[in-house]
Amino acid sequence: MAEVEVVVAHKARTTLRVGDVFLKIDADQVLTDVEVDAMAIAPIPTPEILWRKPPVLAIAAVPGKALGRLGEPSTASPAAWAAAGAAVRRLHDAPLPPWPGRRLDEIAAQLDGECAWLVTSGVLPADLVNRNREVAEAALRPWKPVFIHGDLQITHVFVDGDEVTGVIDWSEAARGDALFDLAILTLGHEERLDDLLAGYGTDVDVDVIRGWWSLRSLTAIRWLVEHGFDPASPGCEFDVLRARM
């Protein structure tokens, strides 16, 4: 009999694995709607949806293994990273999803609020927050919307050898900035950015990617702390921010 493995569990979502089946229980069914719709139209490999009985979504495991993990060196080959870049480019070249994404003013307002909280709560030194707020400014510019995954963490891209076998967790998919996806995938793995861009196949503004590294880290820390994660772990968000000093 297959054992039940808790993949992730917090107040917003719980994901269980039973054999080759993942059971995702989400408090917000709108996010599950987005995930189902996004996987149906994404032009890259996604998990097979087995069934849905709200609040549970059952999906099949994808073959291969994750491209890496935050806080650990990625053992994937440069060719695998290039393949991931090519897959992301296919997504960004696809028709836009019919639902909107976050507005620039919303993102800027969240950034300001989280920076203020980080300083007043004493979670991070003011000089570290202020420096990264300056770096994040590069990301706060108008962009041409593309179909983005929206939460393209390194653990959400699966490869087998040098081939992408699946991209999971689509609940944040929307219209957005292409460089945001590239930044999230390389968060904490700056040394693999050139490999990723070799497959993505176009010139990008690396300063904007650096801006998204800072912005994502600054705005994620409070949520991570409140949901039982440790952004101070080696190679994680605190270290990403310190790298900008």
Automatic annotation (TrEMBL):
Database matches in InterPro entries: AGP_Transferase, Aminoglycoside_PTrfase, Kinase-like_dom_sf
Domain Aminoglycoside phosphotransferase: start-end pairs: 38-202
Pfam families, A to Z: APH
Keywords, comma-separated and alphabetical: Kinase, Transferase
Gene Ontology MF terms in the entry: kinase activity
Full protein name: Aminoglycoside phosphotransferase (APT) family kinase protein
Organism: Actinoplanes digitatis
